[in-house]
Amino acid sequence: MKKIKTLLASVSLAAMVSTTAIAEDVKIGVIYPLTGPVAQVGKDAVAALETAVDIINNSHNIDMPLARNKGLSNGRKIKIIVADHAGKPDVGVGETERLINKEKVHAMFGAYYSSVTGAASQVAERAKIPWVNGASTSPKLTERGFKYFFRATPHDGEFTSLMFEFINDFNKKGGSVKTVGILHEDTEFERQDEKYLSVKDRVQNYKEFTVPLTEKELTKQGSRCMDCGIPFCHSGCPLGNLIPDFNHMVHQGEWQKASLILHSTNNFPEFTGRLCPAPCEKACVLGIIEDPISIENIEKNIVERAFKEGWIKPQPPKKRTGKTVAVVGSGPAGLAAAQQLDEKKASREDDETTFIGVDGGWSRRNDVRVCINDEKRREEEQSPRVERPRVVVVS
Predict the structure, then answer these.
(1) Residue 336: pLDDT band by 50, 70, 90 thresholds?
(2) CATH 3.40.50.2300 region(s) of the chain?
(3) Is the pTM above the cut of 0.85?
(4) Does domain 2-156 correspond to CATH entry 3.40.50.2300?
(5) For the chain, where do the domains classified as CATH 1.10.1060.10 start and end?
(6) Which is higher by pLDDT, 395 or 78?
(7) The 3-state secondary structure of the chain, one letter per residue
């Protein structure tokens, strides 16, 4: 009975905080794990919510909030629209976007897993849709400074304090609990960076010593992007990369589209994805309250996937004039200038054909062989973006 009263209060809160300017019935999006290892938990929660909604919408002779009258105090009724996140934060984000943008819900309720609640509630906060958290217990959820997020349950810190109070009281009454084993899950949607090979392994050569994330892990990292209304990462990036756009494509598993978006502003992301100091991450809005999006690593993995799948192909101009322009320096800037000239301008008869030098340049001179090893550098020098038969070496 106490649990039903708590649910009634939670559903009523979700309805009340969202009805200021609503003339129709109140639609609440409910998101829980209905498939996967804890599906029964989600199904039980939805059944309890349906009971709470029935108590609110219809007249019942029971001593509970909003039970005796039909509907809310203003006569409107509640309708819940249920979605399944299957315990996956990226699915939770997608379903929340659907509920808000297509179903036009007025409030959100869920989502049991703290990792899903943390990721999906960012979507609701951005859309200014209230989110009532009835079960997720991570303390971080209410430490983010969100205006539209409401907690209706204790957090892990409070549960832990109560557990130790119980142990202390138990011991005072003759108990002898000295050791406690704790089994917990840690699926909060946090930043995950590449790990490193051991020093013993890495000092043997100049090859890259990072251990790439799996595709599933990268998809989750892309899902952390909040698609901000004003994405300051754009202004933080000297190239103006469309960062939220390619992050969203990675989140959706659309790697080829992500590559097209990335290459629309960045000629050589295989360089910047490794060597850039990533001012975009310093400008990331999420970084105000959490670790910023791992933009640089996502960028690197997009272009590596594009090379692997053969999506990066030569882009020679339709016509050549036989003239030559030498670009001094063949670091990322020189290569990008050469590619832009070769691709964009040399197709017109009154312009020059451009070739590039392969010696010198930032990527080879500035002691970064440990980041871009000789094998990788040779791969870049044979880049399919620019035809290689005609080359002018400028050092």
Answers:
(1) confident
(2) 2-156
(3) no
(4) yes
(5) 195-309
(6) 78
(7) CHHHHHHHHHHHHHHHCCCCCCCCCEEEEEEECCCCCCHHHHHHHHHHHHHHHHHHHCCCCCCCCCCCCCCCCCCCCEEEEEEECCCCHHHHHHHHHHHHHCCCCCEEEECCCHHHHHHHHHHHHHCCCCEEECCCCCHHHHCCCCCCEEECCCCHHHHHHHHHHHHHHHHHCCCCCCCCCCCCCCCCCCCCCCEECCHHHHCCCCCCCEECCCHHHHHHHHHCCCCCCCCHHHHHCCCCCCHHHHHHHHHHCCHHHHHHHHHCCCCCHHHHHHHCCCHHHHCCHHHHCCCCCCHHHHHHHHHHHHHHHCCCCCCCCCCCCCCEEEECCCCHHHHHHHHHHHHHHCCCCCCCEEEECCCCCHHHHCCCCCCCCHHHHHHHHCCCCCCCCCCCCCC
In CATH, the architecture of 195-309 is: Orthogonal Bundle (1.10)
